[in-house]
């Protein structure tokens, strides 16, 4: 049963003012009869320059329409992309997902193409023929179109991209947090929640991940990524993101790409590699001597499997990196205050270091995956190279072997949220690394550990 009903009159040329009113009256009465009991949102979509053969054909007047129209919201925009995105915002505000679309036969395929670009599998659409509803054929007859050509699909995508580019940034300007340990040979950083166009409260505003469980479509994520690329100086069309499996496999770029992996390393110019994070830890690796970099996604399983050290070892084996030259930065993630595991799973962390687990005797102990990652990385590098382990303030941990810096999410509220309440709808920010050797740099603001920057040279930036 539909929760929202959309009547598509976008761009239709009606035979006359009388037919315009008759069409609407019959359609609206039918909708109210069939869907009025459950549907919470009724909408009419039309072009702002809709034309009739008769002048002064207005939706708001004539033949009893005025009272009926008060139950329907009219969305009128010059572009289909703008109209559907406006409707999506209204549907999302009411947290609705079952949508009936009453559409002329000849526009059904076009409508589906727009919906595929602007909605995700969270939504359930059903389509009803406008002519079948009216049974009177009051609209001008057109041949049904069953296929969208590649040129038409490209035009739809361009229309959507153009509209999304016109939207203002939400929650302020795009901000990137950087580490003072990584030299200007690299552009690096951690994106925050500001500067994007994602409006869903749990995803707002700089979300960089779309899935079948989220309301943010790929088109919105791609626009956020385009804005990040423009600010940071990388080419969003040469962008490679980790295919997470919560394991320890690493893809060395240039070799055959595995089906899944939680680490990437590269020394290639002009490509951007990225790691996801939110609850899980995004990690960046940078070697300014060999000009090689890497990113890794470390959840609790990846932490136990040693994905961080696997990435370090891949850089050593492939590029000849030395342990003392590799800088490892842990991005913001869920903290020990908020992350729990069943006792059986937490036991592995307790065996690694009892300090990684709090309330171990409880059914669901609190686990510090950040400490576990830094401790295990240090332990592995220490086993391969002797050195002193230096303790510094709570927001930093420096390890010899690899030089290690960690950011904690709680240092940066409210820009970088990470919690374990509902990872399927939690904002996902992006980590990236771009191998570009040069001498130019962009202006940036530096705030020590809390650096906020937009630079472009050889880059490494990490995802929350």
Automatic annotation (TrEMBL):
It is found in: Cytoplasm; Endoplasmic reticulum; Nucleus; Peroxisome. GO terms for cellular component: endoplasmic reticulum; nucleus; peroxisome. SUPFAM superfamilies: CNF1/YfiH-like putative cysteine hydrolases. It catalyses: adenosine + phosphate = alpha-D-ribose 1-phosphate + adenine; inosine + phosphate = alpha-D-ribose 1-phosphate + hypoxanthine; adenosine + H2O + H(+) = inosine + NH4(+); S-methyl-5'-thioadenosine + phosphate = 5-(methylsulfanyl)-alpha-D-ribose 1-phosphate + adenine. One of its GO terms (molecular function) is copper ion binding. Keywords: Acetylation, Cytoplasm, Endoplasmic reticulum, Hydrolase, Immunity, Inflammatory response, Innate immunity, Metal-binding, Nucleus, Peroxisome, Phosphoprotein, Transferase, Zinc. Pfam families: Cu-oxidase_4. One of its GO terms (biological process) is innate immune response. Its EC number is 2.4.2.1, 2.4.2.28, 3.5.4.4. InterPro entries: Cu_polyphenol_OxRdtase, Cu_polyphenol_OxRdtase_sf, Cytotoxic_necrot_fac-like_cat. Interacts with FASN. Interacts with SDHA. Interacts with ATF6, EIF2AK3 and ERN1. Belongs to the purine nucleoside phosphorylase YfiH/LACC1 family. This is Purine nucleoside phosphorylase LACC1. It comes from Ovis aries.
